[in-house]
C-alpha cells in the first residue's frame, strides 16, 4: 500500500515551522545596497528591461526593499525609466544606460549569479534549528503505512521507530537481498510524507559568497503551500504587503537524498563555478532537515575510512564546515538523519570509535521460513498469481536446506521469472512446483 493513497491531512502530524517573514527594509534583508545594486544590474543586463514589480518578483524581494537601490542606480545614471502608468514606481520599466551596461559587465565579472536574492547565513542557520529532524513525532500506526509493502519481524520494526525519533544516525547492515535498501527508503518515505514541510533558501550569503541550496532535482516542492498561480494584481499586492512570506525561501517536503557507489569525497565539499564565481552546496548539505542515505556503503570510490573520517565531527557535534576558494571556513548545521546501508561486514568497514557515534544499529538477516513464506505470498498477490505452498517446499528442499541462505529478494525475483515464463508460453500467469523449479534453475543454480 503506497502512502499516497492517504490524504496529507490523515498522516501529517508534524507541523511545518513558521515561514520566514519577508523583510521590510534592506537592512532586514541582510543585504548591502552595493550587493543588491549589483544583483539588479546583472538581472537587467541578462534579461533586458523589466518592470519594477517583475524585477522584485524575480529577486523574490518586496518592491519596497529594492526601491531605494533602484533610485540610487537611477540617480547614478546607471538605470533609466522607459515608461510606467498610474500604479507608481512598481510599474516603471527600468533599463540600463551605457554606464549601467558597463557597471553590469563589471558586476558579472565579480559574480555571475542571477536569481532569487540570497538570505544571510545567520538566517539559514536559525531556520535549520527550527526544523531539525530530532524529536519528530513518530508512532507505530503512522510508521506502518510506508512499511506496509515490507514483511518485517516485529522487533526490527520496533527498532526503526526510535531511530527516526532520535534524528541521529542509523547503520543498517546484513547480507544482500534482505531489504536493507527498502527499509532505508521506507524511512525516507515516512520522513518525506509525514515529517511535515520545511523551508530552504534558494541561496544564502556567507561573507559575500553566494551558495545555492534549493535543488529542484532533489527537493520536492510542497504544492499544498499554494493555492495555484497568482494573477498579476495578487502578485503586486503581495509585493506591497507587510508581514508576508519571504519568497527567497522554498517550502519543500523534508528531503530524502540517496547516494550509492558514485559518492566521492569531492561531492561533500562546495562546488565552485570558477567562471561564475558562486558555489553550489554539497549533496549532504541539501539533506538538512531530512534524510541522507548512503546505500552500498563500503563500495564508494574512496575508502570507507576516508568517508567516515569526513563525518566524525558532524555526527558528534551536529555541525559541519564549508570552505570557500579563499580558504575561509563557515560553520553550518548538520541537521539530518543519516543512514548507512551495507552488505559488508561492519567490523571490516569501521572501528569501534566510529560505531560509538552511530546511535542505532539495525541488523537485517536472512528471513526465517515463516517470514519468507509471508514475503512469498505478498509477491504472489502483487503479481496476481496463486500461492502454491509446494513451490516454497521445493526451494527449501533443493536450495535453502542445503547451504544457500534464503533471501527476501528471491521471492520477488523468482516469481517474476515465473511470470515471464508464463507470458512467453502464452499461458495464464500461475504458480506450480515445476515452474518455480524452472525459474530457480536459471536464477539460483549458477550461484551454488
From TrEMBL:
Keywords: ATP-binding, Nucleotide-binding
Protein's UniProt keywords contain Nucleus: no
Keyword Coiled coil found: no
Domain AAA+ ATPase per the UniProt entry, residue ranges: 166-364
Region listing for Disordered, in residue ranges: 1-25
UniProt GO molecular function: ATP binding
Low complexity biased stretches: 15-24
Tree of life domain: Bacteria
Name of protein: ATPase
The organism of origin for this protein: Thermogemmata fonticola
Organism classification: Bacteria, Pseudomonadati, Planctomycetota, Planctomycetia, Gemmatales
Amino acid at each position: 500500500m503506497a502512502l499516497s493513497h492517504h490524504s496529507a491531512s490523515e498522516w501529517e502530524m508534524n507541523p511545518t515551522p513558521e515561514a520566514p517573514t519577508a523583510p521590510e527594509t534592506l537592512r532586514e534583508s541582510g543585504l548591502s545596497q552595493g550587493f543588491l545594486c549589483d544583483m539588479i544590474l546583472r538581472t537587467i543586463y541578462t534579461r533586458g528591461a523589466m518592470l519594477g514589480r517583475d524585477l522584485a518578483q524575480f529577486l523574490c524581494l518586496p518592491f519596497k526593499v529594492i526601491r531605494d537601490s533602484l533610485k540610487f542606480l537611477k540617480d547614478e545614471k546607471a538605470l533609466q525609466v522607459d515608461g510606467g502608468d498610474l500604479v507608481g514606481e512598481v510599474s516603471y520599466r527600468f533599463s540600463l544606460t551605457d554606464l549601467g551596461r558597463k557597471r553590469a559587465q563589471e558586476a558579472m565579472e565579480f559574480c555571475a549569479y542571477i536569481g532569487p536574492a540570497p538570505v544571510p547565513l545567520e538566517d539559514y542557520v536559525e531556520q535549520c534549528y527550527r526544523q531539525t529532524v530530532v524529536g519528530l513525532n513518530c508512532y507505530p500506526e503512522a510508521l506502518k503505512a510506508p512499511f506496509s509493502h515490507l514483511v518485517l519481524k516485529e522487533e526490527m520494526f520496533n527498532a526503526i521507530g526510535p531511530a527516526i525519533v532520535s534524528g541521529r544516525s542509523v547503520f543498517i547492515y546484513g547480507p544482500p537481498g534482505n531489504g536493507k535498501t527498502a527499509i532505508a527508503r521506507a524511512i525516507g518515505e515516512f520522513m518525506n510524507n509525514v515529517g511535515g514541510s520545511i523551508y530552504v533558501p534558494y541561496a544564502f550569503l556567507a561573507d559575500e559568497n553566494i551558495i545555492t541550496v534549493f535543488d529542484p532535482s532533489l527537493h520536492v516542492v510542497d504544492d499544498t503551500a499554494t493555492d495555484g498561480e497568482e494573477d498579476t494584481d495578487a502578485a503586486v499586492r503581495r509585493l506591497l504587503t507587510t508581514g508576508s512570506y519571504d519568497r527567497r525561501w522554498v517550502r519543500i517536503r523534508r528531503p530524502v537524498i540517496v547516494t550509492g557507489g558514485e559518492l566521492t569525497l569531492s561531492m561533500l565539499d562546495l562546488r565552485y563555478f570558477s567562471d561564475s564565481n558562486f558555489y553550489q552546496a554539497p549533496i549532504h548539505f541539501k539533506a538538512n532537515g531530512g534524510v541522507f542515505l548512503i546505500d552500498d556503503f563500503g563500495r564508494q570510490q574512496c575508502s570507507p575510512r576516508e568517508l567516515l573520517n569526513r563525518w566524525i565531527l558532524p555526527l558528534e557535534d551536529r555541525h559541519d564546515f564549508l570552505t570557500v576558494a579563499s580558504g575561509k571556513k563557515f560553520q553550518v548545521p548538520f541537521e539530518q538523519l543519516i543512514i548507512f546501508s551495507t552488505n559488508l561486514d561492519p567490523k571490516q568497514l569501521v572501528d569501534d570509535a566510529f560505531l560509538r557515534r552511530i546511535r542505532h544499529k539495525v541488523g537485517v538477516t536472512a528471513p526465517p521460513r515463516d517470514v519468507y513464506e509471508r514475503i512469498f505470498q505478498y509477491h504472489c498477490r502483487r503479481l496476481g498469481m496463486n500461492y502454491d505452498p509446494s513451490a516454497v517446499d521445493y526451494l527449501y528442499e533443493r536450495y535453502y536446506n542445503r547451504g544457500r541462505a534464503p533471501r527476501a529478494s528471491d521471492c520477488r525475483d523468482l516469481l517474476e521469472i515465473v511470470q515471464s515464463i508464463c507470458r512467453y508460453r502464452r499461458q495464464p500467469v500461475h504458480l506450480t512446483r515445476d515452474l518455480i523449479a524452472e525459474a530457480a534453475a536459471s536464477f539460483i543454480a549458477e550461484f551454488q
